[in-house]
Amino acid sequence: MTELSTLYQTDYSAWATRNAELLRAGRYAELDVEHLLAELSDMGKSEQHELENRLTILLAHLLKWEYQLTTLSARWREYKGDSWRATIIEQRNRLNTRLKKSPALNSLLAVTIIEAYAEAMQLASDETQLPIATFPPVCPYSIAQLLDKNYYPSTFDH
């Protein structure tokens, strides 16, 4: 085991700093390539996981907005969905920021929406106690709608 491999196990921060120094110096033969590759792979997975989580929350709140807001507003006149709106705004902001910082995620957006939508339907069903069959089986929102800060689905009764 090399000194860097040992450092990876004992002091991650020092390991990362040392590898960065070696990269800047062009001393590629001394790098801990095995662990660097693992870390880069994990970073990509982490980015995609965050994208999926943010989309799941956004989609669930859009579904709740579309399929339950009218019912709740009729029951409680003062209910306007402010907490849902706040969550939708926050998730859109964070998604847009993440996509700007990591533009490669744009190529994964369509597939990730499909994966996140199934979880979002279940989450919306659990939180609203509406049957999961209430929601469309396929995501009804386009990528543009999901990222558009002014888009909110219609709230007519389904």
Give structural notes:
By secondary structure, this protein is mostly helical. It has two domains: 1-31, no CATH class; 43-147. 70% of the residues lie in helices and 0% in strands. Helix 1 (3-10) runs antiparallel to helix 2, helix 3 runs antiparallel to helix 4 (82-101) and helix 3 crosses helix 5 (109-128). The chain is elongated. 20% of the residues are buried.
Topology:
Blueprint: H1 3-10, H2 12-25, H3 33-75, H4 82-101, H5 109-128, H6 143-147
Task: Provide a compact summary of the structure.
The chain has 158 residues and is mainly alpha-helical. The protein has helices spanning 3-10, 12-25, 33-75, 82-101, 109-128, 143-147.
Please state the average pLDDT score: 87
Silhouette: elongated
Helix and strand composition category: mainly alpha
Oligomerization state: single chain
Q: Kindly, what is the distance between the CA atoms of the first and last residues, rounded to a whole number of angstroms?
A: 63 Å
Order of helices and strands: HHHHHH
Summarize the amount of helix as a percent range: 55-70%
Instruction: Calculate Rg over CA atoms.
Output: 22 Å
The description of the largest β-sheet is: none
Number of helices: 6
Task: Report the sheet-strand fraction.
Answer: under 5%
